[in-house]
Design brief:
The complex is a heterodimer of chains A (about 775) and B (about 240). With about 775 residues, chain A is an alpha+beta fold. Helices cover about 55% and strands about 20% of the residues of chain A. Chain A has a 6-stranded mixed beta barrel with strand order 3-4-9-6-8-7. In chain A, strand 7 and strand 8 form a beta hairpin. The two termini of chain A are about 30 Å apart. Classes of the chains: A alpha+beta (about 775), B alpha/beta (about 240). Chains A and B meet through helix 1 and helix 8 of A and helix 2 and helix 3 of B.
């Protein structure tokens, strides 16, 4: 090994703590890039392959009841390759050994062969052939411990049936399975169930008819046109409005996840890379400045400028190599953790949770490159040092009187304080960059902290303010409100309110959106709409309330007229005035008053669900009673919903917050520790002189601690602004049609972020302070610099 | 020892002006000088007299503001940086007042810094043996005395078998006993290899060991003396 390389390794040994601090920041960037990009690629590739192999449809439509003879016409729509119809419905399930009611999505299985589209992958057993046989989703079977041949009961369209499991399967239609009204997947409580076509037709009174069609299109076909044609064809048969993959629940969730991963992969790692490049630049410039004599020596000995530049670039590269190694290790673990989480929520048959080698290579190269960019200035500085100048000690930096000096004079500041202030003013760029680095750390804490407040607000708004019912009873068909008396008579029911749901298409000029309109009585207590001011509001007769995200997408404001095409109920189109906007975090809500709606439909009061308050002690009795009640489609227990949502969220938030706080501390240590070390090396002589002049250790370290802490304090407002900005960007990036994360920033968020960063700064600078305490005064004064 | 064939360095009207912005310092004000093969010359003068500036220019560490300078037939005056580096690498050995050893490298490794890049170097151990430091070969600078460090620096300078050895105050940081030991080594190198050696000093006693003494004052040569009889370093009165 060449002597200059030995020097490199020994220098690195001396700087290892500083190097490690930088390497850790770099590692964060590498790990996140690896995980997010790797997961993004894996998820996207697997999804695409799965969809292609199993012929996942592109257009879907639900309808009330369309005759089979319509199918050839649908197949003839221009651009359609294949169309497949089926019968489907919701059923209440009574699972052995469970008192809670589960729900099932019943689908017909075509006679004599597998479906043309959305082809399930058989995992065990066989598809249903005999009456009473069903095939269920693998996740549902596993969650409930079912084997082939096991039996359970179902209330299918009011009829109690005993079903036998003949097989289990996975389907590209149900990668993400979420029950009606649920916020989180619940594999035990909701499953997909295939039953023979003949039985489904009999059960749902659909002989010679269907209520769902899926289409696959030719490449280049215009989806909009197909949807329009399909809607026209199905309109007389109660078509609810066709939609593309973007309206398909499972695909929406998968696509949202993929988008978020892509966002994360493109936004977050560059921030870490930039911070590490900045840190590398800061440290390397200082090393070069301190190494003047050695650089001069190397030049005098005949080393070329390029060799010297390379020497310093290699030093930075060593830091990068360590950062990349840690990042790869951490990223691999993180990717595994994420894969486990995806396995829980997404049901892929063969998801390849393996980060491809090229992503490792790319993340490593990106890290190496940014480090090199960071070190480039220092390396050029080393090359540019004239050999003769490098042999002499640097001249003292030029300090000049500035306007601030007059202020300092007036304030009668101590000399040590003046030293701190002058140094900040003398190197404004360095001071600014240090502030920027510490501000970035503060912003990282704020950006993660906002999730806590946001989720609290979401939970409060959703469960405490809006959805206050204990359970929602779903009816198979709309029922007259008079049936509320029957519901009230059920065991444990203490209060009941009617509600309707209607599929509708909202139009404002060229903008349109498929939504579900909720109708409830004015003054409802169990399920309410909450306005921006936090109070419950009721839509006025003839008016409609929209969630703000929906209004934004429709580009419509309060007082504007909105065209509402109801696909259920009377199936009429009405002009309604937008009477208000509400802030809402789940879905794209639209709300009308139930009485006004029935009047508009010229019919008596109806309901499609009933919201109930239940005496918890009576729950088992209620479940038992509901199993024997015809005309029921299902029961949504809000408490369970609440619990599973809160559990999942709080677990995630804790993980995310810990990660971000750790990242913030890393950045702070990286910036503050390196800054203080650099200051110490620059000022060792100065500080030793002060000690010799009789200043105490505390006074001398005050200069060092003072400068770093002053910068840290000054960096806080900057960090708050950056943090609020990043939080806003994150909030925007998380927002999809499915949900929104509000921006909730309380003073406590800012205070906590500053506390973390100031404490980490103080800790880092105190580590460096220990070096002052141990400083050998005589030796320091003797060294040339 | 005269005649153009043996001439190693020649300068004509060499001038160096440092422009600090506010004042102009004439470090060299027109120096005409010739140095010869195998000669050990001492540049004597007060600090600021220009001798270090001259040494830097001869060693290819700095450019002159005006005038010309040759190393043998090679004109250094306007040589680009890369060629100057090549010149230093191939021909020049430096010894500095503060030794300029790399603290993170052992004695052997400090010498290797040179042997790694020089065209025809001797073994690092051999160079250290010549300065009497075989037993300290794996010690780091912090573990060596000042005199030992300077001997490592000399070993480093001679390891490339340079044609010229330029020493800037080699004994400036040493006590007399150690200083003598260092000068002994320089004389031994000069005697054994005939390496043209230039020693800068403001210690007038050292001039007694030189072939020629060139006195500097205010950036100019104030006088040149030739020593008919040279003293061995241990006979020098410090």
């Amino acid at each position: 090994m060449q002597a200059i390389d030995i020097k490199l390794l020994r220098d690195f040994q001396r700087l290892w703590l500083q190097g490690l601090a930088i390497a850790m920041v770099l590692a964060c960037g590498v790990a996140i890039l690896l995980t997010a990009f790797g997961m993004h690629t894996a998820l996207e590739d697997t999804r695409d392959a799965y969809y292609e192999r199993n012929r996942f449809a592109e257009v879907f439509v639900d309808t009330r009841r369309a005759p089979d003879r319509l199918l050839p016409e649908i197949r003839e729509i221009e651009g359609v390759v294949a169309a497949e119809a089926r019968v489907q419905g919701i059923a209440m399930l009574d699972l052995p050994g469970q008192t809670d009611l589960a729900m099932g999505q019943m689908l017909s299985w075509p006679e004599g062969g597998e479906p043309l589209l959305n082809v399930p992958i058989l995992r065990t057993g066989l598809p249903p052939e005999q009456p009473g046989e069903v095939m269920v989703t693998t996740a549902f079977a596993e969650a409930n411990g079912f084997d082939i041949g096991d039996q359970f009961h179902a209330n299918i369209n009011g009829q109690r049936r005993q079903l036998t499991i003949s097989g289990t399967a996975r389907s590209p239609e149900f990668i993400y399975t979420i029950g009606p009204g649920a916020l989180m997947p619940d594999n035990a409580g909701f499953g997909i169930i295939w039953m023979t076509e003949a039985e489904m037709q009999a059960a749902y009174d659909m002989a010679g008819a269907f209520n769902h069609v899926a289409l696959r299109l030719m490449p280049g076909a215009v989806e909009e046109d197909v949807i329009d044609r399909l809607d026209t064809l199905l309109d007389p048969y109660g078509g609810l409005g066709a939609y593309g993959r973007d309206g398909q629940i499972s695909d929406s969730f998968v696509a949202t996840e993929i988008d978020q991963l892509r966002g994360m992969a493109t936004v977050v790692p560059p921030i870490f890379f930039a911070i590490s490049a900045f840190l590398v630049g800061m440290v390397m410039s200082r090393i070069v400045a301190l190494d003047r004599a050695e650089i001069g020596l190397l030049k005098a000995l005949g080393y070329f400028d390029l060799e010297i530049s390379l020497h310093y670039l290699l030093l930075a590269a060593l830091i990068a190599v360590i950062g990349v190694a840690i990042g790869w290790g951490g990223g691999t673990l993180l990717a595994r953790g994420m894969a486990r989480q995806y396995a829980e929520f997404f049901d892929f048959p063969y998801l390849i949770f393996r980060v491809p080698a090229w992503i490792y290579a790319m993340s490593g190269l990106a890290a190496l490159l940014t480090t090199m960019i960071g070190a480039l200035r220092a390396a050029l500085m080393a090359a540019r040092l004239a050999p003769a100048v490098a042999m002499q000690p640097p001249t003292p930096p030029v300090f000049r009187k500035t306007i601030l000096d007059r202020g300092m004079a007036v304030l009668r500041l101590k000399q040590t304080t003046i030293m701190v202030l002058r140094s900040l003013i003398r190197w404004p760029v360095r001071s600014a960059l240090t502030m920027l680095g510490l501000g970035a750390a503060t912003s990282a804490v704020i950006a993660s902290g906002f999730m806590f407040g946001a989720l609290e607000r979401i939970i409060d708004l959703a469960f405490n303010q809006s959805y206050r019912q204990d359970a929602v009873i779903l009816f198979a068909e709309e029922r007259p409100v008079s049936a509320l008396a029957d519901v009230m008579a059920l065991p444990g029911v203490m209060q009941v309110e009617p509600q309707q749901f209607h599929a509708a298409i909202l139009r404002n000029g060229p903008r349109e959106k498929r939504v579900s309109i909720e109708a409830r009585p004015a003054g409802a207590e169990l399920s309410r709409v909450i306005g921006a001011d936090g109070t419950a509001i009721d839509p006025p007769p003839g008016g409609i309330l929209l969630s703000d995200r929906l209004a934004e997408q429709l580009e419509i404001g309060v007082g504007d007229m909105l065209e509402v095409e109801f696909r259920t109920g009377r199936r009429e189109t009405h002009e309604m005035v937008v009477s208000g906007l509400v802030e809402q975090y789940f879905g794209l809500g639209a709300y009308v008053e139930i009485g006004a709606l029935d009047a508009m439909f010229r019919r008596g009061p109806q309901m499609s669900v009933a919201n109930v308050l239940v005496d918890e002690a009576e729950l088992p009795a209620l479940h038992a009673a509901l199993q024997d009640t015809p005309m029921l489609a299902g029961l949504i227990e809000m408490n369970e919903n609440r619990q599973s949502f809160q559990d999942t969220i709080s677990e995630n938030v804790t993980v995310v917050n810990t990660v971000y706080a750790a990242i913030a501390i890393l950045i702070t240590v990286g910036v503050a520790y390196n800054g203080a070390r650099i200051q110490l090396s620059e000022r060792a002589r100065e500080l030793a002189s002060l000690r010799i002049l009789g200043f105490t250790r505390a006074e001398v370290s005050g200069v060092l601690v003072g400068e770093t802490m002053l910068l840290a304090v000054l960096a806080q407002p900057l960090g708050w602004v950056m943090g609020a900005w990043i939080a806003q960007a994150l909030s925007n990036s998380f927002t999809s049609d499915l949900y929104a994360i509000p921006l909730v920033l309380a003073p406590a968020n800012f205070a906590w972020a500053s506390l973390v960063v100031l404490a980490a700064s103080l800790a880092s600078v105190l580590i460096v302070r220990r070096r002052i305490d141990r400083m050998d005064l005589v030796a320091v004064m003797k060294t040339r610099e | 020892m005269t005649g153009p064939a043996q001439r190693v360095f020649r300068t004509e009207g060499l001038t160096k002006v440092y422009d600090t912005g506010e004042v102009q310092v004439h470090a060299l004000a027109g120096v005409d000088l010739e140095l010869y093969t195998g000669e050990l010359s001492v540049l004597l003068g007060a600090s600021g007299s220009g001798k270090s500036t001259l040494l830097n220019i001869l060693g290819g560490l700095d450019h002159a503001t005006d005038g010309r300078v040759w190393f043998r037939e090679l004109e250094l005056t306007d040589l680009p940086d890369r060629a100057l580096t090549r010149y230093r690498r191939d021909h020049v050995g430096f010894v500095f007042q503060f030794y300029n050893l790399v603290p993170s490298l052992s004695a052997r490794e400090n010498v290797q810094l040179v042997t790694d890049v020089a065209p025809d170097p001797m073994d690092a151990a051999e160079a250290l043996e010549m300065v009497g430091l075989s037993h300290r070969i794996d010690h780091f600078p912090a573990e060596l005395s000042g005199g030992e460090q300077q001997r490592v620096a000399i070993a480093r300078a001679i390891a490339k078998r340079p044609e010229v050895l330029l020493c800037d105050e080699p004994t400036g940081a040493l006590d007399s006993k150690t200083g003598v030991a260092v000068l002994e080594v320089l004389k031994q190198i000069n005697d054994e290899f005939g390496t043209t050696t230039v020693v800068i000093t403001h210690n007038a006693g050292i001039r007694a060991m030189a072939h020629r003494v060139i006195r500097f004052a205010d950036g100019k040569i104030a006088g040149v003396e030739v020593n008919e009889t040279r003293l061995a370093p241990h006979d020098i009165s410090w």
